[in-house]
Amino acid sequence: ATQIVMGSVLYPLFKLIWGGDEEMAWRTVTIVPAVVAFITGIIIIRGSDDCPKGYYKDLKRTGEMPEVSAAASFRTGSYNLNTWILYIQYACCFGVELTVNNAAVSYFVDRFGLAIETASAIASIFGFMNLFARGFGGYFSDKAMGRFKMRGRILIQAACLILEGVCIFIFAQTASLAASIVMLTIFSIFVQAAEGSTYGIVPYVDSKATGAISGIVGAGGPSGAVSFGLIFRAYPNDPIFAFNVMAGVVLGSGVLSLLFNLKGHRNLLFGKDRDIALETLALPVSDETGPDVNDDNKKNGSDAYVNEVEANA
């Protein structure tokens, strides 16, 4: 939506306002999303809750939300190898998305001699795939989990990334405009499906540090965008080479799925499934020791059960 509104609607309008000055039109049109983002931020701060249950300060005051050390949570998440595998893989899906959003217009202009307005409309196809592709990645990850347990999620993740890399390589070699549009659409689907499947794995890394792990993995996106952006900047006259490098890195990130070692689950090369890990994720045992927690523990079999859960969480 941003590509088509900015490039195909607002840019021609601003160019008309500035008497055909393309440079001035591009510079001023970029102010629009900044203003929209600022207004949206104010609306969110003023009109929304912190979470579905209300405001964090109220939940902490009433004891519904236990105090958690952010530093301890971050250490726990950052010391886990699985976190960094997901960080790299998210760099190779969301980072690729950000890079392509930035580079696609100039690529179509330079490669096929299109007008900026037309190139922006074509590039917007990549973003529009977000309407369903990211959700599909999470959906198929869930379905694979139900049938093959954790190995299913990891296989979906690896498949999305490997197919993404293959599609990027084919896209870079495509010489016709029509074929390029088709390949852009297909590889966009795998890019965003990989984003969804990534966060299908995140909660299983360490349930006690899911927030920190989510943040670290999410940071992989901008990191990947910067890294891939530097490659495109280093080869401004050879975007095909830059796309080929991107494809190789993405393929490598898919192979990294072999190294996942999620505790309590059978991975592609390591570990074995333990029912306790699945039960802990579905019904996490609270660190608090209120009467309701004790009752739940009794129903699940005694304090020995809790000790085993905590040992394997």
UniProtKB/TrEMBL annotation:
Entries under InterPro entries matching the protein: MFS (IPR011701), MFS_trans_sf (IPR036259), NO3_transporter (IPR044772)
MF terms (GO), sorted A to Z: nitrate transmembrane transporter activity
Protein's UniProt keywords contain Signal: no
Subcellular localization: Membrane
Region (Disordered): 288-313
Bilayer topology term: Multi-pass membrane protein
Transmembrane segments: 24-45, 84-108, 114-133, 154-172, 178-201, 213-235, 241-262
Entry's Gene Ontology cellular component terms: membrane
Claim: Heme is one of the keywords in the record: no
Domain of life: Eukaryota
Keywords, comma-separated and alphabetical: Membrane, Transmembrane, Transmembrane helix
Family statement drawn from the similarity comment of this UniProt entry: Belongs to the major facilitator superfamily. Nitrate/nitrite porter (TC 2.A.1.8) family.
Official protein name in the record: Major facilitator superfamily (MFS) profile domain-containing protein
Organism: Pseudictyota dubia
